[in-house]
């Protein structure tokens, strides 16, 4: 009985609390255990044994109690040391962080360092967070939460390149495919506008073992709202959600309604709004504002008013976002008196401190041909010193250009340059357009330089403005190089603009450049006009690019007219490459065009003299 008493009360607690306990403690108990004889049969003379057993049992219990007390004290000391280390690192200055980690980092575990990492993130101590995370990786003190927390911090600063570097450096497959780590990485890419890259990475993550959750899909849908044509990609993601048996939550429904609204899918937005309510979710202000924004697209003020009534009936307060979106609906519907009334209400509530409500009314007025009324709102906004981010200038400059008041538009663009130093691609495009329309080449070049200096990437509209301007100035090769740059950056050229440039290049003798523009259209994702193939064929024949003409004819012979085929055949027989003659004749024969006598004689003479 004494042996079982020692094992039960002494040895097991030591193993439970400290698997790596120092050897001498366990050895002392082991020796005591082995020295105790096995239980003997009961004897008549039992007093000495009983006395001896009582002493041993008392000693064992004493050792057990002392051992537990030591363990508790050691645990308390370790915990205090870790807490002191956390405090030490958290309150260290940037210049002292490295030395502090050398002093205190050894006793800290991954979860302790994660606390400090999140602390630095909340305080926006970007450099310190980077330095700490690098130290954690170098010393092998990271876990899933470390990567997830750090990537969230990186995403708040929109450092997509840094996020990809971190994610790519993960060698542990369990961390690499962890849903929290993957979600943080994808969110960083989407926040930085890298939606295509995020989708590509998402597919790679799934192949590597990621099991997406509803947050993953909600994150990706957020990117769809900012993407042209994002609705169709969003529907693919919704089908994938349903195929995985995931249930859409209230956050995902809100994002989905927003995607539909931003892609002019009003009926679909209504469908998901009603579906969300039917599943027992109570819509909040975000859901109502998203659906209201869908009504603003086509100016459906009647449904907008019904939605506002519903909000009031369920006790929701009409906040700044709702009232501003309702103003947008009224302005889009041409209800300018109601729009003006809402603007006055926003002013009285203190919700018109920035330019957005004014911009919505100005834009509606300007696009309805009420340019003078728009100017009055613009002047009112300037008199009240409303916070200006440049969009009001952008709206007015565009309106003045549309109205043919180019000089006024140029003056307003110059005023913005003088008073403000805030630029984005929308504002720069507007100013670029004003200078292009007024023929101010110097200012056009100045805007392009400003775009480079501000690290602002040109969008599809930027390239369109420049190409049209260079064509107008008869700088066709410059227009071609601009379209080439546009194509390289992933923007699809507009067919009308590309065909116009192709014709202008052909007329100016730039035949190979014209053929290059044709190929940009041909290999774009859209279907091009069949007549374009014959147009480029004539251009190539005029330039003597017969080999390229043969390629165009061979691929599109069924849409080439007989007159164009005859011209092609004659040109090739006179000046073409003899090694391609048989191929040309075969292509002409496959087009069911009968070679007439004149062409046949030329072909005979061509082969005879060769």
Oligomer: single chain
Rg calc: 38 Å
Let me know the average pLDDT. 80
Strand content: under 5%
The total of helices stands at 34
Described by the principal axes of the CA atoms, the overall outline is: globular
* Tally of strands: 0
Instruction: Give the end-to-end Cα distance, rounded to a whole number of Å.
Output: 117 Å
Helix-residue proportion = over 70%
The biggest beta sheet, please?
none
Q: Regions with pLDDT < 50 over 5+ consecutive residues?
A: 1-51, 606-610
Which structural class is indicated by helix and strand composition?
mainly alpha
Your description of this structure?
The chain has 610 residues and is an all-alpha fold. 74% of the residues lie in helices and 0% in strands. The chain has 34 helices and no strands. It has helices at 2-17, 23-35, 47-90, 97-104, 110-122, 126-138, 144-156, 160-169, 173-176, 179-191, 195-207, 214-224, 230-243, 250-262, 266-278, 285-297, 301-313, 320-333, 336-348, 356-367, 371-383, 391-402, 406-419, 425-437, 441-453, 460-472, 476-488, 495-507, 511-522, 531-542, 546-556, 562-575, 581-590, 597-609. Helix 32 (562-575) runs antiparallel to helix 33. It is globular and about 100 Å long. It starts with a helix and ends with a helix. The model is unreliable at 1-51 and 606-610 (pLDDT under 50).
């Amino acid at each position: 009985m004494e042996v079982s008493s020692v094992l039960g009360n002494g040895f097991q607690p030591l193993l439970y609390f400290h698997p790596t306990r120092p050897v001498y403690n366990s050895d002392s108990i082991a020796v005591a255990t082995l020295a105790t004889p096995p239980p003997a049969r009961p004897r008549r003379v039992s007093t000495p044994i009983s006395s001896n057993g009582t002493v041993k049992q008392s000693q064992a219990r004493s050792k057990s109690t002392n051992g537990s007390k030591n363990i508790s004290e050691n645990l308390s000391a370790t915990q205090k040391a870790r807490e002191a280390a956390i405090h030490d690192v958290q309150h260290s200055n940037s210049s002292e962080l490295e030395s502090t980690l050398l002093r205190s980092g050894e006793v800290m575990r991954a979860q302790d360092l994660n606390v400090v990492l999140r602390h630095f993130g909340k305080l926006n101590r970007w450099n310190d967070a980077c330095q700490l995370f690098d130290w954690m990786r170098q010393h092998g003190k990271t876990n899933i939460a470390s990567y997830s927390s750090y990537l969230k911090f990186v995403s708040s600063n929109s450092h997509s390149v840094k996020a990809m570097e971190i994610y790519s450096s993960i060698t542990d497959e369990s961390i690499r495919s962890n849903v929290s780590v993957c979600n943080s990485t994808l969110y960083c890419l989407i926040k930085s506008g890298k939606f295509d890259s995020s989708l590509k990475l998402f597919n790679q993550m799934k192949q590597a073992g990621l099991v997406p959750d509803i947050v993953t899909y909600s994150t990706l849908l957020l990117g769809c709202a900012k993407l042209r044509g994002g609705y169709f990609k969003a529907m693919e993601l919704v089908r994938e959600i349903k195929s995985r048996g995931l249930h859409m939550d209230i956050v995902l429904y809100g994002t989905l309604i927003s995607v539909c609204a931003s892609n002019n899918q009003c009926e679909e937005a209504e469908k998901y709004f009603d579906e969300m309510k039917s599943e027992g979710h109570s819509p909040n202000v975000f859901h109502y504002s998203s659906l209201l924004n869908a009504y603003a697209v086509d100016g459906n003020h009647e449904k907008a008013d019904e939605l506002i009534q519903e909000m009031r009936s369920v006790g929701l307060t009409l906040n700044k976002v709702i009232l501003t979106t309702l103003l947008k609906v009224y302005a889009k519907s041409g209800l300018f008196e109601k729009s003006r009334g809402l603007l006055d209400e926003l002013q009285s509530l203190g919700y018109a401190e920035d330019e957005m409500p004014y911009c919505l009314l100005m834009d509606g007025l300007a696009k309805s041909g009420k340019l003078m009324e728009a100017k009055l709102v613009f002047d009112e906004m300037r008199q009240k010193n409303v916070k200006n981010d440049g969009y009001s200038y952008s709206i007015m400059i565009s309106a003045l250009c549309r109205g043919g008041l180019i000089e006024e538009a140029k003056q307003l663009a110059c005023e913005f340059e003088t008073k403000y130093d805030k630029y984005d691609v929308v504002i720069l495009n507007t100013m670029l357009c004003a200078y292009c329309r007024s023929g101010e080449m110097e200012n056009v070049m100045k805007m392009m330089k400003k775009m480079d200096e501000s690290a602002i990437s040109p969008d599809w509209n930027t390239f369109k403005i420049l190409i049209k301007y260079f064509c107008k100035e008869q700088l066709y090769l410059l227009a071609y190089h601009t379209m080439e740059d546009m194509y390289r950056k992933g923007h699809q050229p507009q067919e009308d603009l590309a065909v116009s440039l192709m014709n202008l290049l052909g007329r100016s003798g730039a035949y190979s450049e014209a053929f290059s523009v044709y190929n940009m259209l041909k290999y774009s994702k859209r279907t091009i006009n069949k007549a374009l193939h014959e147009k480029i064929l004539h251009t190539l024949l005029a330039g003597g690019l017969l080999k390229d003409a043969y390629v165009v004819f061979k691929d599109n012979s069924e849409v080439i007219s007989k007159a164009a085929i005859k011209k092609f055949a004659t040109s090739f027989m006179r000046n073409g490459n003899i090694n391609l003659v048989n191929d040309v004749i075969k292509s002409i024969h496959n087009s069911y065009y009968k070679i007439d006598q004149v062409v046949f004689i030329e072909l005979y003479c061509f082969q005879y003299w060769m």
